[in-house]
Specification:
About 0% of the residues lie in helices and about 50% in strands. The chain is mainly β.
Length: about 110
């Protein structure tokens, strides 16, 4: 049974930082790419960042240079470091295993101006 358990998130002011974590179980974590998505009410879930099994990363234009995705294979965990947060980053953030389409439970990030 695949489980993705997210932690982190919360309420911060613009310009501050947060780190999200996503701990995976039930998969061979080290060989899987991992993605982060986000969703706001009334909108489709959008891709934020991804990291390959080899550590290559890619980012949405809206977060490039501010957000950084990393992974710790020893802990079966992927992270999303979010710096210089903006009010438009407010959303529910989800981690995802692209292979198999498994999602985390989501975590709210709210950035006040």
């Amino acid at each position: 049974q695949v489980q993705l358990v997210q932690s982190g998130g919360g309420l911060v002011q613009a310009g501050e930082s947060l780190r999200l974590s996503c701990a995976a179980s039930g998969i061979w974590f080290s060989i899987n790419a991992m993605d982060w998505y986000r969703q706001t009410p009334g909108k489709q879930r959008e891709f934020v960042a991804g990291i390959s099994s080899g550590g290559s990363t890619n980012y949405a234009d809206s977060v490039r240079g501010r957000f950084f995705v990393s992974r710790d294979n020893a802990k079966n965990t992927v992270y999303l470091q979010m710096n210089s947060l903006k009010p438009e980053d407010t959303a529910v953030y989800y981690c995802k295993v692209p292979r198999g389409g498994y999602w985390g439970q989501g975590t709210q990030v709210t950035v006040s101006s």
